[in-house]
Amino acid sequence: MNIRYLIVVAALVLTACSNNDDDREDNPNLIDPLVSLTLNLNLPQYNPLNFPGNSVIINQQGIRGIVVYNVNNELYTAFDLTDPNHPPNNCSRMEIEAPIATCPCTTDDNEYNIVTGEHRTDPSKYPMQQYRAVRTGNTVRITN
Q1: Sign of CA dihedral 33, 39, 44, 47
Q2: Which in 2, 27, 54, 105 has the greatest CB count within 10 A?
Q3: Are 90 and 104 in contact (CB under 8 A)?
Q4: What does the pLDDT look like over 62-79, one tens digit per residue?
Q5: What residue spans of 1-144 are helical by DSSP H?
Q6: What's the rounded Cα separation, in Å, for the pair 88 and 33?
Q7: pLDDT digit string (tens) for 85-110?
């Protein structure tokens, strides 16, 4: 009887756990590139991330680059710079004027909040593709 009880409890615990990747909707416009970066905040190019409200763009990573944003020195966000609501093309790399990311394509007026990744005016649209961002000491680790 005890073994069955343990198996049932273990099954419930394992099925109750979820990974953030499983919770997000599959966006047909985006791929899921491998991202694994360590940003040393002592380096001049990442120094802005030492101050809340600042962001840094990492080119040649993600689909169209990644924006990393310092919310409060403990919480950092990292989002892909491709507009998630249309397939990547020559105008889909978003421009940053923190805390807003704007798609420059003339066919839409998509704007996103780089703290939450959500579309600013239409919550039914796909959010920005998010990566994990964790600060440990003087480094910020970005992964998916």
Answers
A1: positive
A2: 105
A3: no
A4: 999 999 999 999 999 999
A5: 2-16, 20-23
A6: 13
A7: 988 888 889 999 989 999 998 778 89
